[in-house]
Structure formats: C-alpha cells, structure tokens
Protein: Membrane fusion protein
Amino acid sequence: MKKFLIIVTLFLAGWLGWNLLPYKRIEVVHPMHGTAVQAAYATGTVEPTVMMPISTHISARLIKLNVDEGGRVVKGQVLAQLEDAHLQQTLNQLKEREELARKRYERNTKLVKQGMVSKDEYDRTEAEWKAASAEVQSVEAQIGYLKLVAPADGQIIRRDGEIGQLIPANQAVFWLSCCAPLRISTEVDEEDIASVRLGQKVLIRADAFPNQIFWGKVQSITPKGDPIARSYRVRISLTRDTPLLIGMTAETNIIFHEKKNALLLPATAVVQNKVWIVRQGRLMQIPVTIGAKGLKQVEILKGVKADDLVVLYPNETLQEGQRMRPVLVEQEKE
Structure:
C-alpha cells in the first residue's frame, strides 16, 4: 500500500510540475490574404540607354568649355572650342587667293567669249578657282571640327579634358546620354532566367530613395550567359520622369507571377515545406503546400488556415507538444 501511494505521489508531482511550468513566449503570425508575387531578384546599376561620344577629328588644344558633367544640352549647342587660330590665319590667306582666282576666272569668262583669250587659258583659270575654293572648304571643315557641338538633346554624363590640354584626334571630350530613357542593367540567376520575358513588370527600389517604389519593364535579355557567375544580363527600361541617376544601385524584382487574394505567410516561417503552429498552448508541426515564393512572403496553397497561429522564426529546439505562450505580431508585407 505504501509503495502504491509513493508511485501515485510521484506521478502527481510530475504531472503538476509539468503543467505548472511557465510557458515560453514565442512570436507567431496569422496567415494573411494578399497578392502573391513570384519574382526574380537582382541588383543592378542605372545606365544610359544611348551614350554618344563627342570628339574632334583633329588633334588640338582645348581652349574653352561651355558645359560640364551633368549639364543639359540641346541639339546644335556649342559645348567646347579647341584652338583654331593657325587655321583661321590659313583660312584668311586661302580666301584671298580664292577671291583673286574667282576674279580672274570671271574676267576670262567674258574675254573667251570675245575671243581675246584662248580656251586653254579659260580652262586653267577655272581650274585654279575651283581648287582654291576646295582648299577654303577643306580648312573651314577643319575649323568646324574644332567646335564641339551637341548632336542631340540630352545630358552630359562625362567630360574628359581640361582647358589647355592637348586633345588627340578622335578622343571623346564629352559623353552624351540622349535619345531614350535611362535603363537598369542587372544580372539574373540562371535558375530564374527561364521565367523572365520581354515586357514583364519590374518593381524597383533604390537606397537613394528609401520610401519610394519605381516601375520598369524588361527591355532585353542577353542570349548568352556568364558561365562563371551563372547569370544572364537583363536590361530594364525606366520611365522618362525617373529620379534615378546614372550609376545608382537599384534592387530589381522582375515579376513573373501574381495572384490576388492568396493566403500568405512570412518566408521565415516555412522550413522544408513545414510550419510550426501553436494550438491550445502547445506546438505542432504540420506540412504545407507552397505556391508562389516572394522575397519576404510565401503563398500557402494547403495546410494552414487564416486563424492559425504560425511560429514566425522556427528553430531546431522546437519540439512537438512543447508548451508555448504565443505572442501575436503583424506580418511584414512585400
């Protein structure tokens, strides 16, 4: 009888001890309804769609700058002047020679009709005048090359040259961004590239504008990937009114699946297609069927209901039947 009482006492003590242990607190969330988004995530850099070099065809010294990096320009605007004094002097001399040749030609035109000069003499003076005119035009063209002019409306994004510097022929002094909106160049992982299509919407965030979201579209997909990085270059077009600047880093989300009114859980709550829930104060692990996967949220097709309490940050220490006090927190949206 005493032995029986001891066993009962130990059992009651164990039961009371277990049930009177304090509950551990654990953060939980309710599954929420919202738009499930599946996207390819990549970091990219803002760049000009069209970048035109502006250079001189003749080596000369830079003597004047009318615009600098960041400046907006219009087609035909003079951006810089290179030294042309020696060519101007040559041009003046050639114009004087051309004027004399022209007068001789005009005089001989009248005289040949009167038979006072030979046809050969007339032809010679005509050839001299045309040659002098060609020389004038050639030097005028060279002088024109030394005046750097904007070929289109746009923005100067780079300047390579200082006043007094000798600029080699065909070396770009300015780089002009023009003719099209800016774009983002990014590298998409080879696992995601098969889902990327031209024209897909792209959600864009940038650290420079922390509280803003921008939108773009997939403009081009390179057909050849990088075998080392295992990625493919994707270019994303931006709107003309974008405040993003060339060279900025941006986070891009290429959206290839959207579903309205989907049941969502934080991505952290789902581990190997399973979640932990708190039911009647105790932990229970259940399998779930996953749909679209976003960066922060996962679509749940089967396994949990909207009123379930799902553990937000499960870990290896959790056990079936473990007593927990759920602390409800709000889900963070995408």
Remarks:
- The chain has three domains: 23-36+260-328, 40-50+179-259, 84-145.
- The two ends are 66 Å apart (CA to CA).
